[in-house]
Amino acid sequence: MTTYHIDLESDVLKVRFGKPANGDQVIKDAAVRLEEMVASGELAGGKLLKIDGPASVAVSYVIAHKISQLYGAIAIFDPKIGRPGYKTFIIAISQTPAYKIGELIETDEPHKNKPIIKVVLCGPPQSGKSCLREGLKQAITSIEGAPYPYVITACPDGEGAWFSDAARRDSDLARRLKDEYKAKFTPEFAQKAAGWVRCANTPLNIIDIGGKITESNRVIVREATHAVILAGDRGKDEVPLWEQFCRDLNIPIIANLDSDYHGNEDKIVTESPLLTGSVHYLARGEDVSSRPMVQALARVLVGLCRG
User: Fold this and answer.
1) Please, what sign has the CA dihedral across residues 71, 76, 81, 84?
2) Cα distances (Å, whole numbers) of residue 65 to 31, 48, 292
3) How far apart are CA 79 and CA 146, in angstroms?
4) 262: left (phi over 0), alpha (psi -120 to 50) or beta
5) Please, are residues 209 and 153 in contact by the beta-carbon 8 Å criterion?
6) pLDDT in tens, 62-117
7) 20 to 30 Å CA-CA from 174: which of 7, 86, 126, 221?
8) What is the set of domains in the chain, with CATH numbers?
9) Could you give the CA distance from residue 134 to residue 207 in angstroms, rounded to a whole number?
């Protein structure tokens, strides 16, 4: 099984991650697949190619390098923009006056009949939400037939989806980069992040927000469809406040979890109708994707997408 899948459907290049692997192996597999498609004539070139699916920065460079010269323009799907219910692509490469860089291409591919799940990870600060987010993402991608979990970082704390992998390799460097990228949480950012959530068109979206109950978070969370509450020992007294926060916004809570930093094992108390229990040692740089609670939560989210 390859670590990166690439297929051509009409004028759309469908891309997605396969089995988990380091970035160097992923771009090698992507390069081999693209070379095969070019050599066979499957990627024969043309006026416009649209690319739909998740890609790392490194994979994006490989794709651009291998095929940009074959097409007049290349457009990339962005689930955070455009009219809700329809896919919108951004022209990222253009070698023809027919298309301009930054131009939006809206397709007639509807998504209204497909469930779009937008799950917000919320709870007090320093509970391990970002660590859970990354482990959950990996756990979901290991489930056969599961949709790709698109992550929206709706908090300008500098800790994007890249952070966990970076922290595993060099925690000091990851921390320095996070501090450099950190910005202020302004009303303008909240409105922008709310727009990302509102326009998200992928089947499964995970939204990571800040750890305080604020008007800014209220603006963002009201665009979600479900919520997961995670709280550590220091924040357990805030759980009722977060429960009320979600109820006020009519956001159903699908999991209410304890973050047991000093624990040695996960504990699943209930799975339905509410997933409860604890997940242990959510530490930066730790791969938590195989933890029983993370696996259970991954199954819940995939189940929501399947209806």
Assistant:
1) positive
2) 9, 16, 41
3) 18
4) alpha
5) no
6) 999 999 999 999 999 988 887 766 789 999 999 999 999 999 998 876 555 568 99
7) 221
8) 4-110 (3.30.750), 117-306 (3.40.50.300)
9) 11
